[in-house]
Write a structure and sequence with these properties.
single chain, about 325 residues, alpha/beta, 2 domains, 9 strands, globular
Length: about 325
């Protein structure tokens, strides 16, 4: 694509969410701008009132690429108010057929990434989400995970809602999907901490996914992010439980039982760890745990290693 030309109706909108990404954003934007395509795309950069100079970088790129870069700049931090930027500020501005994602501290590394994924989506209308493998960069983490995503196959493959729900392996900065499906996503849960997992699962409730084994993105993992904060981890733990109530409304029939069992797993964890929950009191947690997974009442055991690891990384279990 000729990035010096203005784009009125792009085929693809690339969404970049930023907050204090001054050290990473130029690499992020350059990775998107280097894409070799025969179709036009626009880059929508949402900054949530950064305080480190991120805004200046966005404006610099906007001046250089005014027909490609679309700044969406907040004067007050919206995340702290519980406002979700995608549906509130970004999606209403889009007029493309497809949408791609890349958070401000990640970056695309393959100039053919968009072309490869858009060609597949154009040829396969039943596919609702296209993604691929990533390189992981660990920054400031003493003992990084050797394998971050447990990918079920080594080569390219199709996948469905249940496989992603059972073992999350879709990295957000690799996603390309269809705007019309994104706009169907329910937006009635303001207590959700992160929008990535439920977004992916909603897309998979509307079609199948396709995963390319080629690594075309670098994803950063670092201790400086909000998800490394212990208080956030406790909030996130309850948030993940809320996600289950959200996705049970659109989960395919074949996956409903798995979702309910996961709900029971969290409910038993709240009981064992004595964590308060806004949704239920202690008695209701017990009743729901039995209701969502009646077999547990007879087994009388649960594996809490995974949930303890989420809350207390590095601690003995």
């Amino acid at each position: 694509m000729n990035i010096n030309s203005s784009v009125d109706t792009p085929l693809v909108s690339v969404i970049v969410l930023t907050y204090n990404h001054k050290d990473y954003l130029e690499q992020n934007l350059n990775g998107i701008l280097m894409q070799k395509t025969s179709f036009p795309f626009k880059i929508y950069v949402h900054d949530d009132a950064s305080t480190d100079g991120t805004r200046d970088i966005i404006l610099k790129y906007y001046e250089k690429y005014p027909g490609i870069i679309v700044p969406i700049l907040q004067s007050e931090n919206q995340y702290s108010k519980g406002i979700r930027p995608y549906s509130t500020f970004v999606y209403p501005k889009l007029n493309s057929k497809y949408v791609a994602f890349c958070e401000g501290d990640d970056y695309w590394t393959d100039p053919d990434k968009l072309r490869i994924q858009i060609e597949y989506l154009e040829q396969n209308p039943g596919c609702s989400i296209c993604c691929h493998d990533v390189n992981i960069v660990h920054e400031g983490i003493e003992s990084p995970r050797e394998v971050f995503y447990n990918i079920p196959h080594k080569s390219d493959f199709r996948f469905d809602f249940l496989s992603e729900f059972t073992d999350h392996f879709v990295p957000t900065p690799t996603i390309v999907t269809r705007l019309d499906i994104l706009r169907e996503q329910p937006d009635n849960y303001t207590t959700l901490v992160s929008g990535d997992i439920q977004k992916i699962l909603f897309l998979l409730s509307r079609g199948y996914g396709y995963y390319f084994s080629k690594k075309m993105v670098t994803k950063r993992r670092n201790r400086g992010g909000i998800t490394s904060n212990m208080e956030y981890r406790k909030i996130e733990f309850e948030g993940r439980y809320e996600v289950l109530y959200y996705i049970i409304n659109f989960a395919p029939d074949i996956a409903v039982s798995a979702v309910r069992k996961k709900m029971a797993e969290y409910e038993r964890a709240f009981i064992k760890l004595r964590l308060p929950v806004k949704r239920h009191n202690f008695l209701m947690l017990i009743l729901n745990a039995v209701w969502h997974d009646p077999g547990w009442f007879f087994r009388r055991r649960t594996n809490l290693i995974a949930v303890n690891t989420i809350l207390f990384p590095g601690a003995p279990h």
